Amino acid sequence: MKYISTRGSAPELAFDDVLLAGLARDGGLYVPDSWPKMSKADVRNLQGLTYQELAVRVIMPFLGGSISEDEFSQMVSDSYAHFDHPAVAPLKQLAPGQWVAELFHGPTLAFKDYPLQLVGQLFDHVLKKKGEKATIIGATSGDTGSAAIEACRDRDAIEIFILHPKGRVSDVQRRQMTTVASENVHNIALEGTFDDCQDMVKAMFVDENFRDRHNLSAVNSINWARIMAQIVYYFWTALSLGAPDRKFIYAVPTGNFGNVYAGYVARKMGLPISKFVVGSNANDILTRFFDSGEMAMSPVKPTLSPSMDIQISSNFERLLFEHYRRDGAAVAKVLDKFRRDGKINFGQSRWRAMRKNFESYRFGDNATKDFIGELFRTTGELLDPHSAIGVMAGQQTVPADDEVLIALATAHPAKFPAAVEEASGIVPALPQRLTDLFDREERLHTLPNDIGQVCSYIDSKLLKKAAA
Predict the structure, then answer these.
(1) How far is the C-alpha of 456 from the C-alpha of 463, rounded, in Å?
(2) How does pLDDT run across 253-275, given as a tens digit for each residue?
(3) Which of 54, 368, 416, 429 is most buried, most CB within 10 Å of its CB?
(4) What is the per-residue pLDDT across 422-447, written as a single tens digit (0 to 9) for each?
């Protein structure tokens, strides 16, 4: 299997090179040149596997022979060995035909652990095999940063720099990043929004001198390996509830579109998914697009669900690529226009085609708090604000008799204790291993939203370490 850029002019790469490249050199995102396909019988043959066994079966076609099955199986085993639940991604039933998938049993209590624990193993393997070192640059709206740091800490071949928007992540999210004492971990609090952080990371990758000087790689969902690993929990949850003999609707709280796009890939592979329901907060660019057909940027608004405080959903580009019949030049042209004008219409036929697979709903902070409180009082289930938006979005749709609704719970409620307490009156407890989180020393550097100053800071850190 080879990988191609969504903008059409970067060279095709094998999986190991795509892993290290992150963003394509033409500014696009890598996707497979074709989708692995599973028949109904193939999907049925996956029933009864453990999460780890299923991950190997689902992901191996995407590796294209670059890693042996034995080597990859060991990486998968190591990645999920320390998750808090034996099922890795357990399901809870909220109502008849309505389920929640708990994707927060990893080391940093968010769904990003599911891909990034594996991506850390993959980086280590590929870099050692090539005899190289890499500098990983990431932007986070709250959860990617801590999950990436946990996956990459103390690895000799990796230096990792994570940018987060200053004051726009929860205290728990920030401290999970800034209290890691490993020498290869560097935290930057950027004076701006998540979109500013994400734009800066992309700018570093487009600067070929800077990119090559430090052998940059990415852990954001612009890196295909992130998406690839997230496909697994769609198969896992559907198989647990009767796939391929039942159909599924997935409700997903969405910011950067990577999580729900992984489900779209699972559907392309043959998983019986009827549609996806996208949940948005006040930063509702995706909901406005699916409602009207026009994608238009607006200022980012701080909310109780900060991981979704995004106006530029990077992974939407991968979906566009499919709906532009994989014409990279056309995608590059239309996205350049979007950046220039701040709004774009992709055409009525494409919009209608997307709406066959996606519908979207927005919820403000008050509605989110009300729902968290009411759900806790009636069921005893406590959700964080992001997961609550996913469940609420799912409840706006009416499944058919042969469909099962699964909402993805993307973070542990203890990551957002103030919002959850205000909504429910309950202070969610951190797991035992994190009870001293607020006693640990923080390590971070605050920088303005200026690409020159951020690059100079990274240069100085890496040069100092090289000279030591």
Answers:
(1) 10
(2) 999 999 999 999 999 999 999 99
(3) 416
(4) 999 999 999 999 999 999 999 999 99
Q: 385 and 304 in contact (C-beta within 8 Å)?
A: yes
Q: Which residues contact 112 (CB under 8 A, 6 or more apart)?
A: 106, 143, 144, 146, 147, 148
| Structural domain contains residue 236 | yes
Question: For the stretch 281-305, what's the b/e string if a residue is b when 16 or more beta carbons lie within 10 angstroms of its beta carbon?
Answer: bbbbbbbbbbeebebeeeebeebbb
Q: From residue 75, how far is each of 114, 146, 299, 325 by CA, in Å?
A: 13, 20, 41, 35
Bridging pattern class, strands 98-102 and 403-409: parallel
Burial class (CB in 10 A: 0-12, 13-18, 19+), 207: middle
**Residue 59 is assigned to a structural domain of this protein:** no
Total domains in the fold of the chain: 1
- CB-CB neighbours of 9 under 10 Å: 13
Q: Of the listed 2, 37, 40, 112, which one is catalytic? A: 112
Q: Rounded distance, CA 405 to CA 422, Å?
A: 28
**Inside any domain, residue 154:** no
CA distance 151 to 371: 33
Would residue 133 show up in a list of annotated catalytic residues for this protein? no
pLDDT at 143 over 90: no
| 171 within a domain of the structure (yes/no) | no
CATH number, domain of 265, equals 3.40.50.1100
